[in-house]
Amino acid sequence: MANRKHTQVYQFQGGYATDLAPQVRSLDFLVKAENVIYEVTGAVRKVGGAARLNSTVITGAPSVTGMFDFWVAGAAGTFSQFFVATTSDQKVYNFGTGGTASDITGAASIGVSAMPIFVQARDLLTIWWDDASVPLQWTGTGNVATLASGAPSARSAAFHLNRIWAAGNNANPSRLFYSSSVSATDWTGSDTGSFDIDPEDGDRIVGLMSYKRRLFVFKGPNKGSIHVLSGTAPTGADAFSRTVLMRGLALQSHNSMVEVGDDVLFMSQYGIHSLVATDRFADFQESLATRFLMGYFRELLNRNRLNKVWAVNYASKGMVVWTVTPIGATVNNQAFGLSYIRRSEEGIKPFVWNRTCQSAAIRINPTTGNKELMFGSNNGFLLREDMPDRNIETSTAYSMRIQTPQLVLGLQDAMGSQRFDQPVTLHRLYLRTRPTGTHNITVALQRDDETPESYNFSQGQSGFILGTSLLGVGRLGGGNLQIGIADVVGECRSVSMDITQGGLNEDANIYEIALEFTPISESGSTPL
Known about the structure:
43 strands
């Protein structure tokens, strides 16, 4: 009889999903995708660590509630960079191009733990607050100051058609205000004005987004609706006008909106949506980018803190990240992400990172010019993320984890016929990786409902080393990649694999995983 050994190779073409079938025949999604980053090669890697921007803690060790990379052209055309941060103890700091905090709060009055909304207009940084504190302005020198007489104490703002638009103040929660088209500090002149957007409908204006010469107005956080402001001037042939795009999607945080290429992604009470798809179809399901993660948003997040979410586009690594609070927690200490780096081949891949992330921003590194991902901590530090050293602030380890659903192995019986329920005999487990150091990746393999069996794969560079342990673990070197091999035993119908790497300053870079097995014939014997 012919040899019926079969090797099933799995690539990590899917990301994290909570709402799909627990048992599948192909690896299209993951049950867990924690502390990972997807690469353009198709590999999945342990995400980089976190390093402090400021070596000295901010006085009082407050939460960093917001950050903004502020660039000023100036009259001479020479750019100046300032990295501005706000904190939960009602302070505003400038870090310039270094790591030293300079308090620029001055006499500003800010609500406790208020979340900022940053809007830049004509070399002027304006700061608005989600609790409707008085808006501030900063030019890059001195302290922040009150924005201007007549400027509303609004909960959201955006720069659109050379004007600042602001909305959601306490007295008129559904009123949209706009400044002059020639001055961000003029809110009372003839070129200024306001609109009411469905007042007293049980919501307020939560967010504003300028997109393709239109201003999208998001209401929430309860019932939800999206409105579109068209036109280019208060009066005339192309006067401002408002239409309703759709109802039923409630934006939770202005800062949860982020531009991604030719699209805008935003978080509603259901998950992450595409503005392009919403605009095109005006349909909830068509716009939902996280349709297989509704359970995650419904059951695994602290929904009372969705108004504290920040979103950033980490474009240099092809992903968008939202900082969120898991269920049972009271601070943002998990980042939820969507990787789009291989979108055309494999679609969007969701993942999560577990680390402090009260706020998020993108900062242009003043030395390298690279755009870095920054997280604001809950203890007075600004953290540079995805650093080469796999540690959190030099001393704390974290674990990468990839868990597959239960994979049905036998697609055919011993004679080559299709069979619904196919037992197999396992022979070997393979792991193709790029060597990253003398440490291990662990694969816990579970057969059906049996107790998982663990196998360690060394990540040290190797040539040919086979059968070096009791379990027959070995490595086959191949250029810059290597294949780890483990002898496995037992019969089963399906397996799941839990892949982890959790050592301090230890990395993992995985390309493929594979299982070698032989289908068992109907008589119960294994063919040769």
